[in-house]
Give the backbone structure.
Amino acid sequence: METPASAARVLALAKARHSQNGVIAGFIILMNALKDVLLAAERKRIAVGHFNFSDLAAFNAIVEAGRESDKPVMVGLSEGERAFVGVRQAVALVTSIRDQYKYPLFLNADHTHSLAKAEEAARAGFDQIIFDGSALSFEENVAQTKAAVEAIKFIDPSIVVEGEVGWIGASSEVHEGRPAGVALTTAEEAKQFVGATHVDVLAPAVGNMHGMLESMVHGSTHKHLDIERIAEIKEATGILMTLHGGSGTDDEDFRKAIKAGINIVHVNTELRLAWRRGIETALAGQPKEIAPYKILPAAVEAIKAVVSARLRLFGS
């Protein structure tokens, strides 16, 4: 069986129901390496949506929304999510979708904190690996990220490696207050980090944070981004950039951030909330139901609605 990373180099897509010129929403319909897809998105000043999953309900919802949108999508699993789903099992899920539907779905090892975990994901066939040393000192972050880039590229040069500078918290959950120590990344830090580590993608801190506040869950407040800082970092580095902690962000800030240079947007907490609300709604309506396959579709539909809305926004 081909892994996603190997399939990305060889698998040609044929979506006959669309035009014969081979375009899905402006993308060439070839299963190119992920970096080529990201560069195509950058030229169009749009972003690729990245959505985390930790069960089949969320995975199916993301895939359904992505296929209906005719846009490439990234799915990711943190170390905790990978421990639950399985590293090779996640690869098999993504490969099965590529094989069956000829759909450009890419797999990311999200927030990987050790070289061993990074190498495990690389050998399993992940398309992207995020080495997260953001909790370390700047110097140690540079040293460990550089070592991770070298090790991952030795295993498979086509794997996209992302590094992080700046602290935005570490948990996709509902918080009572903003995580302590959140600070913006400077353009000079970003330039130095990219030059020293040779990452393919940079994840800066630009007003974003992991998780959501209670007020964001209810929609009374939203995250706001430093658009000028995003533009400064883009100009200083010229590199592909990711916005982590996208859940709860103001829609107009998303649009401006993408135009300023963001190429990937991560959403996780919103999906977890949708999953729980879907389950709660299903159980309330079917209090005696015990069959998972009769309960979980409500979670699928709730997550699918979030992903579909975000994909429309990121591609507009």
Summary: The mean pLDDT is 87. The first helix runs from residue 4 to 10. The chain is about 50% helix and 15% strand.
